[in-house]
Amino acid sequence: MEPTAQISPAALSQKLAGSGLRNTPQREVVYSVLVGKRDHPTADEVFARVKADMPTISLATVYNCLEALVQCNLVRQVNFERGPTRYCPNLHPHAHFHDEATGSTYDIDLPPGLLEQLRNQLPSGYRASDVEITFRGRAAS
Amino acid sequence: MEPTAQISPAALSQKLAGSGLRNTPQREVVYSVLVGKRDHPTADEVFARVKADMPTISLATVYNCLEALVQCNLVRQVNFERGPTRYCPNLHPHAHFHDEATGSTYDIDLPPGLLEQLRNQLPSGYRASDVEITFRGRAAS
DNA sequence: GGCATATCTTAGAATTATTCTAATTCTTAC
DNA sequence: GTAAGAATTAGAATAATTCTAAGATATGCC
Question: What is the tens place of the pLDDT at every residue in A56-114?
Fold first, then answer.
């Protein structure tokens, strides 16, 4: 799937600074947990994984770190129906496939023309800053 | 936009029966409220509108009715990020445009080929029963 | 029609994910 | 080294939804 490489701590600080935010040990660990296992974890799951490295971190901080990473465009939020928000460090334009049987989520790469084509369906005057595509179904076992 | 016509109470009963569900006065009112104003209301908003006709209905029943209508495929659920679930009686395949400025939601008709084309992006073995497309941005005033 | 059974409705309690609050700690700039 | 602004923390608060248990309604069968 060709994952986005993890950026260096210095680059992370830069990205955060670009949105007026500071880097912290907590944010570094949260980021590296996300990049380390790209299975679209929930905040709770991130919390559990981060605690392995940093047992004193709090859930509120995990939420705060995730929000910071979303704000500086290093991570995207993904929602399925009313389930808990999931976090995705894949910045390439892509769709999501949500397997109803297992609950797993897969990234689906999209040819770049497709998003353009979709935007062209909008009536004139509608300007979409973001297009989200979600498939729901079953993946072959 | 060519709205789906409201079906008759008898047809509603039939549709419900098809999913092993009964028709009730509450379900009829909830359905007609949804078809009457297709602005993608939340359960709370539906509750408020239904109370005009049926002041004794409870919120739990509104949730129950909405779920029944979703189950028998007369209504679709729509979610934006973590906001409350919204309900849409438009059964034609369509996308949603979510206006970030006003919070309003608009249906966007899609040419039928487009959904097929999207499904073709899936790796073999992935079978999508549903494709959801959401635009986020601003509509011209 | 009358009874048994299953479904539906209701009010309120419970749950879940998330955000808020206030106190403390950490950074950064001067 | 101190002041000011950010970030972290634990726990309380919130919002949407689901659950629970009771009563009401409807349906099928004799």
Answer: 999 999 999 999 999 999 999 999 999 999 999 998 999 999 998 888 999 999 988 89
Output the six-digit token pair for A104: 């797993």
Nearest chain A residue (CA) to B115: A118
Give nearest nucleotide to A68 (CA–C1'): D7
Nearest CA in chain B to A112: B121
pTM of the prediction? 0.91
B130 touches chain A (CB under 8 A): yes
CA distance B47 to chain A (A): 19
Which positions in strand C are less than 7 Å from the protein's CB atoms?
7-12, 16-21, 27-28
Tell me if residue A101 falls in helix, strand or coil. Answer: coil
- For A136, list phi and psi in degrees, rounded to 5: -125, 135
The radius of gyration of chain A's CA atoms, rounded to the nearest angstrom, is 16
